[in-house]
Amino acid sequence: AFMWPETVEDPNIDFNLVSRSGPQGRTLVENAFFEELKKDHVPVDHYAAFRREGALGSVIDAITTQAVCHTIRKHKPNLIAVHLVDTDHEQHSHGSGHYLSKAALTNVDHQIGQIIKATKDAGIYDDTVFIIGADHGFTSVYDEINLRPFFAEAGLADKVRFYEGGWAPFLRLLPEFNKAQDQPKLDAIFARLMKNLHVIRIVESKDFPSVIGLPRYEDSDRVRGQYLIVGDSETYFVWTQDNDTSRRKRRRPAHGHGYLPFHPKMYPMLVLSGPGIKKGAMIGHVHNADIAP
Q: Helices 57-75 & 99-121, crossing angle to 10 degrees?
């Protein structure tokens, strides 16, 4: 596993190159595999220095790719999971149309080519299946709507908590919220918001499992509120101290992912190639939960 998320302490991985945040910033875990790579002159020990100097993610991905190729040639593992990070980094910073984002895609294409060549050098190319995928799409957002004035006008701004501005913020009812007195005011706010063209839906906790695949707020400490206010893919919701409720331009565009997965802008790519894979076939829409098995 190379820079693969959630693998730091997994004892089932024979060769695990992974980073972890600590007092010195994000560094590679110096396990036995790290020491082996360093001894074999793969520059993994330069990773932290590159990060400290603000190196482009392409440099980090180059180190990862060199480690992958070396390991393929030396060990011929049965399964390799590789996470190359720069395409995500550049698109978050600049948007998917920026030249640095396009350069990151070009670089990762070259790095995939290096990995494929390594399997040929190791004599395992004809027996290797390649799966190239991602965990999300990307889009840019240039407009926002401030939701705080709607609640302030009704006297509820201090009785609710707004979690994480964006496409679909959670709204939590605080202990100060009086169900008998305040619920009609909240319902009136929701009715008003639903008249806005950029509000798609307001989802209640009881509907979280069926609509967005999350537990109810009452059943999980990971769910941040009893309501989810869902906007369109081109509008962020914010909570700021001004009283302007019009849709307005953001001071800086937001480039990201995390919108509800049914939107085509959030679809990631998936390419499979190798023995047992039908050449040229189109398999249509795939759910991420189906990829691992």
A: 10
